[in-house]
Every structure is written in C-alpha cells, then in structure tokens.
Design a protein that fits this description.
Blueprint: E1 13-18, E2 20-21, E3 29-32, H1 35-43, E4 48-53, E5 56-61, E6 63-65, E7 68-73, H2 75-80, E8 88-95, H3 106-114, H4 116-123, H5 127-138, H6 143-158
Antiparallel strand pairs: 1-8, 2-3, 3-7, 4-5, 4-8, 6-7
Helix pairs in contact: 3-4, 3-6, 4-6, 5-6
Length: 168
C-alpha cells in the first residue's frame, strides 16, 4: 500500500532510526519516532502520516510501542525498503492529507461491488478495521492471491464468520 508524499510547502519531519522488533505478543517490526517529532505531529492534530522510508512512501498511523511513538513496518515493507532488523532507516514523515483513506485494491473493490451484503458490513466497520482487512488483501504479492483473499473475505463478511465477529 504505497502513497505519494503530499505536494506541500510544509517540510517533512525527517529522522533516522533503527528497525526494532516488539519483544512480546505479535513480534512485529517497528521504527521508533523521536519524541519531539511525534509531539510536533500530535500538536498539529496529525494521527496518520505518509512516511517515506528509504525512499518508499507508505501510509502509517503513529502508534505507541512500549510507551514511545513508532511506525509499524511489516516484512514486505522491509523487503521493499531493503532493510532488516537493526538497520537504520531514513524517514521523512508528512501529515497524511487523507487520514481516513483506505486503499481497497482492485480485487477487493470488485469483490465488494459484487456482494452488497459483504459491502454493507464492511463499510459499517470502523476505518481502522476496514484498513486492516483491506491490507490483508492488498499485501499479497500475486494477483491470484489477492483475488482469492478478496473472495474469501467477502464470504466471511457476508456470512458473519469473520474472526471476532459478534454480529450476525
């Protein structure tokens, strides 16, 4: 899920930080955001950024990791930015001009268009849940895998069998 940095006269918040790994729970990778930069972004009302990591733009939320601000980076993104655990990443962070934007991808957009029940359930969810589900589909490298995931996800939405589903 890539994004272009906004065309703006505002300079990005730039920093270099190591790729770290969360030690418990899910064990995801993240890049810590310096506290002063996170405070400036937060004071301007920014909750999501377009982060350019080693030249690759992506949309990310500012999250808290161990009490400190961070950007989560998955393994596919680490491959794209040619970084690994412990490597230093160069980051330019811009406030996301479309913080509620959700990149559905062609395959998931088509699956939702073909299934009104799944579409209604999907768009009734919170933007964060929508973004997470869409990411599951769009993160697949191969078109065949994205299509399979889109169809399976539409089915689970329609049949209320999505993990943690409490409606139905």
């Amino acid at each position: 899920m890539s994004a272009l940095p906004p065309e703006s006269s505002t300079a990005p918040e730039s920093f270099a930080a190591p790729v770290l790994r969360e030690s418990g729970g899910m064990g995801y990778h993240f890049v810590p955001v310096p506290a002063d930069i996170a405070a400036r972004l937060a004071s301007s009302g920014t909750r999501r950024v377009i982060a350019v990591l080693n030249g690759v733009p992506v949309r990310r939320a500012l999250v808290t990791q161990g009490g400190a601000p961070a950007l989560i980076v998955g393994l596919p993104l680490l491959r794209d930015i040619r970084a690994a655990l412990g490597d230093t990443v160069l980051v330019d962070a811009y406030p996301d001009p479309e913080p509620d934007r959700i990149d559905l991808g062609d395959e998931f957009e088509a699956a939702l268009a073909d299934d009104p029940e799944a579409s209604a359930r999907f768009f009734a969810m919170t933007p964060g849940r929508q973004r997470s589900l869409a990411s599951y589909v769009t993160s697949a490298r191969r078109p065949e895998t994205r299509l399979k995931r889109a169809d399976e996800l539409a089915h689970t939405l329609r049949t209320s069998t999505l993990y943690g589903d409490t409606s139905g």
